[in-house]
Design goal:
Length: 99
């Protein structure tokens, strides 16, 4: 089911409120890289994010190597070909609260 995409004003606000995140994929996603002490810390973070994602039914695209975790948020169901939605804002806020 399609969900509304964020307007450019909403995206500007999102980036202002969450300066650790950067726009990616020509404005269709946001991304943040986390660096932890070791793999165990990184995996613990990923486990907590996974529970958030399940609770919100909104899932990250992510890459992990050892203590680094790269998180990208986009909404596959947004607009015609995907994009940023309020779901991404909500999940980014929850992830920031964990970090
Ligand atoms: N996660 N990032 C992301 N984007 C989605 O559109 C999405 C999701 N998780 C589940 C989900 N959509 C559900 O609406 C199912 O339709 C897949």
């Amino acid at each position: 089911m399609s969900v509304p995409e964020l307007t450019s004003e909403e995206i500007t606000l999102l980036l202002a409120d969450h300066p650790a995140w950067a726009l990616a994929r020509e404005g269709k996603a946001i991304t943040r890289t986390f660096q932890f002490k070791d793999f165990s810390q990184a995996w613990g973070f990923m486990s907590r994010v996974a529970l958030l994602a399940e609770a919100q039914d909104h899932h990250p695209e992510w890459f992990n190597v050892y203590a680094k975790v790269e998180v990208t948020l986009t909404t596959h169901d947004a607009g015609q070909t995907g994009g940023l939605s309020q779901r991404d804002v909500t999940l980014a806020q929850a992830i920031d609260a964990l970090a």
